[in-house]
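pasting for the record
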Amino acid sequence: MKKKTYNCGLEAALEVIGGKWKVLILWALHGEARRFGELRRTVPGISEKMLIQNLKEMEADGIVTRHDFKEIPPRVEYGLTLFGISLSAALTPLCEWGQLHMVRIGAGKEEEDDVEPRRMKA
C-alpha cells in the first residue's frame, strides 16, 4: 500500500476527522469514556449505523479505543487514545470560536467586521 503524502497539516487532520459525525463523536468523548447508547444520546441526529461505522473508522485510525467488558448483557465502552486526546485538544479553540460566533452563524447574516480581512499564510 502506497503511503499518502499531504500538502499541509490541515489536510492530514481532515483525513482523520472528515465527515459530519467524527468531530462530534470526538467531542463527546473528550472528557470521559462512554457507552454506545450514551454516545448515541450525546450526538443528536446520528443513526446507530453511522455511529457504528464512524467508531470503527476512528478505532482503525487509532483515535478511539473500544473496551468490551465481556458481560451479559453486553457492555462496551469507547474512549480516546492519547492520539485522540491530542486531537480533541486541538478542537478546543475551534469550539470556543463557534461558541463566540454561534448567533451570527445561526442567523446566516454577514456582519461588518471592525478590521480589514487578512490573508492567511499557507
